[in-house]
Specification:
- InterPro entries: Cop_transporter.
- Pfam families: Ctr (PF04145).
- Keywords: Copper, Copper transport, Ion transport, Membrane, Transmembrane, Transmembrane helix, Transport.
- It is a single chain.
- The protein is mainly alpha-helical.
- It has 2 domains: about 30 residues, no CATH class; about 120 residues, no CATH class.
- Helix content is about 45%, strand content about 10%.
- It has 3 helices and 4 strands.
- A two-stranded antiparallel sheet has the order 1-2. The chain has a two-stranded antiparallel ribbon with strand order 3-4.
- β1 and β2 form a beta hairpin.
- The protein is elongated, with a radius of gyration of 21 Å.
- The termini are far apart.
């Protein structure tokens, strides 16, 4: 036994290891037989559930971009309530961004592509100039509720 769960002296494919009779990829691969985010989901050889998983990852990425570019908190609102709402929105955005990252860590090529597509569509819809209204006059500029993800540093 080679210790990789292959049995009968068979070697595991390069870039993969076995855990309880389930192959876990450590390099990008293509195919619908994968697990994304949760044990057993979307399952193996189930095209419908795989498509649903791709839609979920896409929508998670779009939602992260929406939260990154929204500005719904009024400047004149109560500072405590505004601060708590801003903190809650931040926690949700970071949590969803980590879920997208963990989905991509399935190393499935389709998941990677829909995550990029979701962030791209989300940025185009919520962050690009195409859908933005003209800027208000000087002195009335409204800031975003949350800092952009790229400006987050320790």
């Amino acid at each position: 036994m080679n210790g990789m769960g292959g049995g009968m002296g068979m070697a595991a494919p390069p870039g993969a290891f076995y855990h309880r009779h389930m192959m876990m990829h450590m390099t990008f691969f293509w195919g619908k037989s994968t697990e994304i985010l949760f044990h057993g989901w979307p399952g193996y050889n189930n095209s419908g559930m795989y498509a649903l998983a791709l839609v979920v990852v896409f929508l998670l990425a779009v939602t992260v971009e929406w939260l990154s570019h929204c500005n719904y908190i009024e400047e004149t609102s109560n500072r405590l309530v505004a601060g708590l709402l801003q903190t809650l929105m931040y926690a949700i955005r970071v949590g969803l961004a980590y879920m997208v990252m963990l989905a991509v860590m399935s190393f499935n090529g389709g998941v990677f592509l829909v995550a990029i597509a979701g962030h791209t569509v989300g940025f185009f819809a919520f962050g690009s100039r195409f859908f933005k209204k003209p800027s208000p006059p000087a002195g009335f500029a409204k800031t975003l509720d949350l800092p952009p993800m790229s400006n987050m540093s320790c």
